[in-house]
Amino acid sequence: MNNNESDMLKKSATYSIVARRTKENALGICVASGSLAVGSVVPHIKLDTGAIITQGLTNIEYGIEGMKLLTLGFSPDEVLKKYH
Fold first, then answer.
1. Which residues contact 13 (CB under 8 A, 6 or more apart)?
2. With CB atoms 3.0 to 4.6 Å apart as the test, which of 27, 38, 52, 57 could cross-link to 42 if both were Cys?
3. Which domain does 61 fall in, by range?
4. What is the C-alpha separation between 26 and 28, in angstroms, rounded?
5. What does DSSP say about strands 43-46 and 50-53: parallel, antiparallel, or unpaired?
6. How far is CA 23 from the centre of its chain?
7. Domain count of the chain?
């Protein structure tokens, strides 16, 4: 991480929540941040599949590729291990 990235992290924070209501099979994501337009890159959600939130210095590919793996039947733990 360079100094510019470090300074950027100190100036803003992102808070995210994924919530699931099993009775209705409902899933939702909420993101709040000091950075502009995070809602276009941080949350990834797909009906009957799952939800992924990428934040910090966001790498949108984690969400895109992670959702593909979930769709293919990988477990959440398997997806996390692939990118961790």
1. 33, 34
2. 38
3. 3-83
4. 7
5. antiparallel
6. 23
7. 1
